[in-house]
Amino acid sequence: MNDFVFHTPTKVVFGKGTEDQVGALVKEQGGTKVLVHFGGSSAKKSGLLDRVCASLEQAGIPYVTLGGVVPNPLLSLVYQGIDLCKKEGVDFILAVGGGSVIDSSKAIGYGLANDFDVWDLFDRKNTATGCAPIGAVLTIAAAGSEMSDSTVITKDEGMLKRGYNSSYCRCRFAVMDPELTYTLPAYQTASGVTDIMMHILERYLVKEETMEVTDTMAEAVLRAVRKYGAILRDDPKNYKARAEIMWAGSLAHNGLLNCGGPVGDWASHQIEMELSGMFGVAHGAGLAAVWGSWARYVLDEKPERFAQLAHNVCGVADSGDARADALKGIENMEDFFRSIHMPTNIRELGIDPLTEEQIEELAEKCTYFGQRTVGRFKVLQKEDLKAIYRMAR
Amino acid sequence: MNDFVFHTPTKVVFGKGTEDQVGALVKEQGGTKVLVHFGGSSAKKSGLLDRVCASLEQAGIPYVTLGGVVPNPLLSLVYQGIDLCKKEGVDFILAVGGGSVIDSSKAIGYGLANDFDVWDLFDRKNTATGCAPIGAVLTIAAAGSEMSDSTVITKDEGMLKRGYNSSYCRCRFAVMDPELTYTLPAYQTASGVTDIMMHILERYLVKEETMEVTDTMAEAVLRAVRKYGAILRDDPKNYKARAEIMWAGSLAHNGLLNCGGPVGDWASHQIEMELSGMFGVAHGAGLAAVWGSWARYVLDEKPERFAQLAHNVCGVADSGDARADALKGIENMEDFFRSIHMPTNIRELGIDPLTEEQIEELAEKCTYFGQRTVGRFKVLQKEDLKAIYRMAR
Fold first, then answer.
1. What is the DSSP string of B174-205?
2. Which chain B residues touch A220 with a CB distance below 8 Å?
3. ipTM of the complex
4. How many beta carbons lie within 10 A of that of residue A1, not counting itself?
5. CB-based burial of residue B127 (10 Å sphere; 0-12 exposed, 13-18 middle, 19+ buried)?
6. Please, are residues A124 and A164 in contact by the beta-carbon 8 Å criterion?
7. What's the whole-model pTM score?
8. Which distant-in-sequence residues (6+ apart) come within 8 Å of A240 by Cβ?
């Protein structure tokens, strides 16, 4: 069992209509000038942006707005945000959106609090000593960025997608109204469900000793996400299901579910990150497309761990043969992904065929051009990554 | 499902030897003069107090000490602590101990930050607007005060035991080294295990709709606490078991396990609180002594909920008869308490006999002299309380 630090200072305000509390929450945090940061037109069309701005106005807090965040948020907009905040004297960033908007906000926050090029963080050339305060109004349950310490940004030039983790960027508050997710396209809902499951699986599928309290809570959340994910496929305006998934999304990535265990594997995330960097696929869908191939490739390092997943989450009876049960569990997981209309290979992502040249480039980028290995359950070299991309195509 | 606010800002630093980080942690929080608050002689004898003070000295932080906290911590010592802190210019309180020491520290913190008699909080005459910052070095897994928003203090005069809850008092950090609990007497370990289970059960045994993510995590933690509680009975220096129980103790009471549900029942706690106020019994043992009687008394309000506990935690097979399964679950819980040498009635607490006059007084005090009802699963009046005390004696 590992020592650990658990620190989730984000104040979660969860429930119907909670977005109307935004002004009061910013005030509580001492914000005096806000950047309202958002994505496309849906936040405008739905009226959410108006309500958030009205809440700020009611609290007497001036603001400026910056929209245009895209999935796999771009460094160029982060630079724009930093410039705007400096010019306008912004001291609080309010993210209205999902993981991309929150990550873009975090990167702007890093840019404001550190006097070097913010990309240096993602490029491993520097470390942060702070981050401007951020709050979030969540509109999709998926990335878990509203409580996490992680940020992922894509550099426009070369579409390099890189992450940076530190406690400084954790949101001061997260407003979570499950009703805001009612109108998401089914594909996005399912991608989010997958992303949530993968955040848990990356932490859970490890070889080292773990904490039982953590393991069994992870299994409990995984079971609930599968159950309510399936319900949402048929009943997207089911409040209970939306709420269960939304809260699970935060728990999956706030650190709770790897207390006492190692840092996790994260190879599936790295493998997918290159795919979505190159092809712009939805992150959750990309994860569903590669996970089964990764799992079968690394399984033999410790079949018992995959068997535990099979028994406690996938409903596979214990046959006494860990490897056989593990394989049944992986199949069951893929069956679940298919049941919510997620792909289980790269072809189903619309990338057909993935060429050998592309595989070479993906694997090369994934190792940071030979500077690192990937994953921990099995430590993957470039040739391993190529094998997994081939299995998954 | 209820709306909720989840806010656990406490930074948990968990693992072997983490008490040596105390000086750095106080510094991180901006503390410049510390009150080291503790209980009896064990913290001195074990050398823990010396190590904590050495860590403060190494960080260049001056401190004063105040020992003498007793189980069911007394208001008189809280007043002493407030006076000492004011005289010495203390701006950070470091609790070295268990729930009693942390609660005493919280009450001192309230006293420093509010300009009225601190007992007014517990007497419902006033509300807090702040609390001086507190850190904890935990020495027993039980009360969960290291991450909770609650404080329980006993007024010497009349031995009135009262609680007060607010977010202001949450610890800035909690240092948790499972090895510090190796030398606890077996009875205290078992009382702690019971207290932890009861913190979960009070939240779990409710009639209203709950969140499934929360329910199933609660069940997971309960199963783990039973498993590792039993291991500690025979193997008190088992690091994994100590760690599982210690972390479970924080999760049980930090708010995680009632997200989306109602506030909980808390009748068993109120019923026990009067017992320990009058007879000074160990809180966990007192809870074990009364819980079964409470459960049988209220069960018929919603047998299905007790049956869920029986099925998912106690290993009772679903017979289709919720009431029968519920009763089996309650019996199984009592069997567990007996297996770790906890009492399941008041006589086994050494109170024999509990007289009718005492029952009258306990019930009277428990309703705050007729000013309140107790519990929510079934709302209990004075006569209900008397019936439960009689069943439990």
1. EEE-GGGGTTS-HHHHHHHHHHHHHHHHHHHS
2. 213, 216-217, 219-220
3. 0.95
4. 22
5. exposed
6. no
7. 0.96
8. A228, B1, B209
